[in-house]
Design brief:
- This protein has 274 residues and is mostly beta strands.
- It has a single domain, classed as Beta Barrel (OB fold (Dihydrolipoamide Acetyltransferase, E2P)).
- The protein contains 1 helix and 15 strands, in the order ββββββββββββββαβ.
- A 7-stranded antiparallel beta sheet has the order 9-14-10-11-12-13-15, with no helix packed on it. It has a 4-stranded antiparallel beta sheet with strand order 7-6-5-8, with no helix packed on it. The chain has a two-stranded antiparallel sheet with strand order 1-2.
- A hairpin with a 4-residue loop joins β6 and β7.
- The longest helix is centred in the last third of the chain and has 5 residues.
- It is globular and about 70 Å long.
């Protein structure tokens, strides 16, 4: 994977850094795995705006991703590595031996023609999915379940990975991308390897219009609002805005908002870094 810096032939391209898309093998998605994707524009069922700064953007079709990887013991061949507009990671189209086609999150190093399989008695190789109880300690993993059979919910974005640190009884200790170390049931599944498109963090948009293509409308800074609109609004000229806080008055930038009585606190061994 690589990135390309464009020549400054327009102001929008002067600082633009784009993905090289070296890993992508096709630009045509599998039609049977596409679904319509409706946009809300930040409005609720009554048509009222409940989420600001959303709207517009290019039309998208949703790619149906197999996060559960529940076809145990049936090998699948990687047919293509594709771009997905709905996520930062690349996806892989896999053809199972029984004829079924599915999309999965592509791991770093996954190649076309490679065989992947899920189950407990498989080798811990890139792209294979198995329970945490059967993965060797110290292995780099991604696409981790939080509850058995739920499907992957953690470490799914571009370049994300976790590490299996230890096992004790029915729990495995996993160090997550945020730096948090927590216990997860050893019967939960995870995929071997880090998620693809690790260069995503190096990309530079280049111009404001590209945010509009992604469906993001301009965001108003709190310090330029009036006092009725935000706790940080008001003042003559360029006022600092006071203590950083949200529109509801909750302090920001380091203030811990996690509930002290949350049920999952007992599974967290070490909190994420500030």
């Amino acid at each position: 994977m690589s990135v390309r810096k464009l020549k400054p032939i327009t102001p929008g391209q002067r600082f633009r850094v784009v993905n090289g898309f070296d890993a992508i093998t096709t630009d045509k998605p599998e039609k049977s795995l596409l679904a319509p994707k409706k946009r809300s524009g930040g409005r609720n069922s009554q048509g009222k705006m409940t989420m600001r700064y959303k709207g517009g953007g290019h039309k998208r079709k949703y790619r149906i991703i197999d996060f559960k990887r529940d076809k145990d013991g049936i090998p699948a061949t990687v047919a293509s590595i594709e771009y997905d507009p709905n996520r930062t990671a690349f996806i892989a189209l896999v053809n199972y031996q029984d004829g079924e086609k599915r999309y999965v999150i592509a791991q770093n190093g996954l190649q076309v023609g490679q065989n992947i399989v899920s189950g407990d008695k498989v080798a811990p190789e890139i792209g294979n999915t198995m329970t945490l109880a059967n993965i060797p300690l110290g292995t780099i993993i991604s696409c981790i379940e939080l509850h058995p059979g739920q499907g992957a919910v953690m470490a799914r974005s571009a370049g994300a990975f976790a590490q299996l640190m230890a096992r004790d009884g029915k729990y495995a200790t996993v160090k997550l991308p945020s730096g948090e170390t927590r216990m997860v049931l050893a019967t939960c599944k995870a995929t071997i390897g880090a998620v693809s498109n690790s260069d995503h963090q190096l990309l530079v948009s280049g111009k404001a219009g590209r945010s509009r293509w992604l469906g993001r409308r301009p965001r108003t800074r709190p310090v330029v609002m009036n006092p009725v609109d935000h706790p940080m609004g008001g003042g003559e000229g360029k006022s600092s805005g006071g203590h950083p806080r949200s529109r509801n008055g909750i302090p920001a930038k380091g203030f811990r908002t996690r509930s002290k009585s949350k049920a999952s606190n007992k599974y967290i061994i070490e909190r994420r870094k500030k």
